[in-house]
Write a structure and sequence with these properties.
The chain has 462 residues and is mostly helical. It has 15 helices and eight strands. The strands form four sheets. Strands 1-2 form a two-stranded antiparallel ribbon. Strands 3-4 form a two-stranded antiparallel ribbon. Helix 7 packs across helix 12 and helix 14 packs across helix 15. The structure holds heme C (HEC) (2 copies).
Length: 462
């Protein structure tokens, strides 16, 4: 009797549970696809099927993105061979933004509302080449050196003229007498020891080894949803695949912090030169130390902030005392490139600077108010600002990305800035001239053409 009651209670409970599940499924079906913060951890499709699905949309998405870029930017990019990055590449000269039936002078006279209403703002957020897809994506110049980073489903989108040196110089805070210690060599697991043994202490050398060692991440690993064909690609990426020689190759990614997908920012790899003098890390994440960022980058950013994916794909958890600290001890030696025209205050040396550069400096500190946020000697205030660029454009979808407000962003330092085009967190400004046009609008400065030229000349001297 007792057993029977138990059984009927049990049956009742099971029945109820099934009923609840059925109702939930019906509601689910009615609402359509549920948007989740998590990726599908259990794949019921094969690598070949995933690859075929990605290849099926590759051409069409690339075309849509190329159309967006062509509508926004001029394709012929000028460069002044006399002005080069530290590694010798000519610095691109702009502005490169295409204006739709309006001149810079006319734009300057319009209010933010008028620019927004007429859709004239040339520097809207830049979508990722396939924004719905995302992931780490490397420029062609890097793939030539490191073919294991090739994705079968996506090609990099920006022209090489607006990217940094393919193999940037390395300057060490501890050995300024040496100049560029890389001397045109790409530092990898194959040569780091011979280049740096004798220059670094064993702890820093071990840190550097970890910075050039591959660890699994979202697209480069052994699971069926990887985006690489190459077995060595499956082993993962290294920190210096993006922060090449401690600087940047402009490899791009979608920021891990934001959901849903269409609101995630495209982010271009920042330089790690000068992390020693900075106090906030990440465009928005605002981690407080390089140690935290190094640890977090591999644990979460490598996997789009999805801790379940990280566990599945083989996250390499760095040990704080014997690995993270070693890595950041090396990173903290990476100096800004030499700026021979700056004095000990980080200001222009009047004996060396040109008249135009000096006029640019006066504007930077005065009328243009750049120094309010970019303070000498490194031209950062080590905080974040909300520039409210959304005053100038409507919130609407473009190629899978919502043209939404950026929110507060870190004030990236301007020391050595000519070495790291394109500019802003997503690379929407391709040249320093474009950044001057951007801030001229954002701050409503109404600068004359000659003043804009002087400001750009000053930025190149930093
Ligand atoms: C996909 C290429 C890529 C790889 C690989 C990569 N990073 Fe980054 N790194 C980025 C991007 C993009 C950002 C900007 C993140 C943001 O804005 O939130 C960044 C930011 C940083 C920052 C903060 C810089 C700043 O100025 O705020 C540090 C420090 C850093 N990375 C260190 C590392 C370390 C250490 C590794 C290896 C564990 C690594 N990164 C691997 C692309 C990469
Ligand atoms: C209110 C603070 C503020 C003022 C004023 C300001 N900036 Fe900035 N600047 C920022 C922030 C924040 C960023 C990062 C924005 C982003 O990445 O979206 C930035 C980014 C930049 C960059 C790109 C840095 C990089 O690494 O990509 C350049 C160049 C620059 N500013 C130049 C200027 C100039 C020139 C002026 C004056 C005409 C100026 N800024 C005025 C806060 C400011």
């Amino acid at each position: 009797m007792k057993a029977q009651t138990h059984r009927s209670v049990l049956f009742g409970a099971v029945f109820l549970a099934l009923l609840v599940a059925a109702i939930a499924a019906a509601v689910h079906a009615q609402q359509g696809k549920v948007v989740s913060s998590y990726g599908p951890t259990n794949q019921d499709v094969t690598f070949e099927q995933i690859k075929a699905a990605r290849l099926a949309v590759k051409t069409e998405r690339a075309k849509a993105h190329a159309e967006l870029l062509n509508a926004r930017y001029n394709l012929d990019i000028k460069a002044d061979p006399a002005i080069t990055m530290s590694g010798g590449k000519p610095v691109p000269v702009g502005p490169t933004a295409k204006l739709a039936g309006v001149t810079w002078e006319q734009l300057d006279k319009m209010t933010p509302e008028q620019i927004k209403d007429r859709g004239f703002f040339p520097y809207k957020p830049l979508p990722f080449p396939d924004h719905a897809e995302g992931g780490m994506l490397f420029p062609e110049m890097t793939l030539k050196l490191l073919p294991r980073l090739t994705r079968f489903d996506l090609d990099f989108d920006l022209p090489e003229q607006v990217l940094p040196d393919a193999v940037p110089a390395i300057y060490l805070t501890t050995r300024p007498d040496l100049g560029d210690v890389a001397k045109g060599r790409l530092v990898t697991i194959n040569n780091f020891y011979e280049i740096f043994n004798g220059l670094l202490n064993p702890k820093q050398l071990e840190g550097l080894r970890l910075l050039v060692t591959q660890f699994p991440q979202q697209q480069f690993n052994a699971t069926e949803d990887r985006r690489t064909d190459r077995p060595d690609g499956m082993l993962g990426v290294t920190c210096f695949d993006c922060h090449v020689n401690g600087h940047t190759n402009d490899a791009t990614h979608l920021v891990g912090d934001i959901r849903p997908q269409e609101f995630r920012h495209r982010i271009d790899t920042p330089s790690l030169r000068g992390v020693n003098i900075q106090r906030l890390f990440g465009s928005q994440r605002a981690l407080k130390t390089v140690e935290d960022f190094t640890e977090f980058e591999q644990r979460a950013a490598y996997f789009d902030g999805d801790i379940c994916m990280a566990a599945k794909k083989g996250v390499n958890v760095l040990e704080r005392g014997s690995q993270v600290h070693f890595m950041t001890e090396f990173l903290s030696l990476l100096d800004f490139p030499p700026a021979p025209k700056l004095n000990i205050y980080g200001e222009l040396d009047t004996a060396q600077a040109t008249r135009g550069e000096l006029r640019g400096e006066a504007l930077f500190n005065g009328k243009a108010q750049c120094a309010k946020c970019h303070a000498a000697p490194y031209y950062t205030d080590n905080t974040m600002h909300n520039l409210m660029a959304e005053r100038f454009y409507k919130q609407e979808m473009q190629n899978g990305m919502m043209m939404a407000a950026d929110g507060p962003i870190k004030t990236f330092p301007l020391r050595g800035i000519k070495d790291s085009p394109p500019y802003l967190h997503d690379g929407r400004c391709r040249t320093l001239e474009d950044t001057v046009e951007y801030f001229n609008l954002i701050q409503q400065l109404h600068l004359a053409a000659a003043e804009k030229k002087d400001l750009a000349a000053f930025l190149r001297a930093l």
